[in-house]
Amino acid sequence: MSQSGLPTDVWARLRFTSLERLVLFHCTFLALKAEDTENRSRGTVDDLIHGEREHFAHYIVDDQYEHVLRLFKDRDSGAVRLQASVRSGDLR
Asked: What is the largest CA-CA distance in the chain?
């Protein structure tokens, strides 16, 4: 069921030979989703994922562009996510 309560159709079935390939696909999918100019109102890749807690955040400079580097930890699994986002400049 979708969030609207309507039935949904399976449009893809994915099977990965390793966890690394799954993570690579996930990161690529999120990057492509962030580039979707049609649906900016849905949020960004930088959105906090449910159950995560931010443990660290600091500004960094990479090739003269300001970024924010953040470290999140999932409460239930203990998994750690490192995320960098543009703070200012042409890339924003």
From this structure: 48
Check residue 48 and report its DSSP letter.
Answer: P
Q: What does the pLDDT profile of the chain (92 residues) look like in tens digits?
A: 556 677 778 788 889 899 888 888 887 887 777 666 665 544 455 556 777 888 899 998 888 888 888 888 888 888 888 888 887 766 55
Tokens of 51: 């159950």
Tell me, what amino acid is at 62? Answer: D
- Which residue is listed with tokens 């449910």? 50
Task: Say how many C-beta atoms besides its own lie within 10 A of residue 77's C-beta.
Answer: 8
Sign of the C-alpha dihedral computed for residues 75, 29, 92 and 43 taken in this order: negative
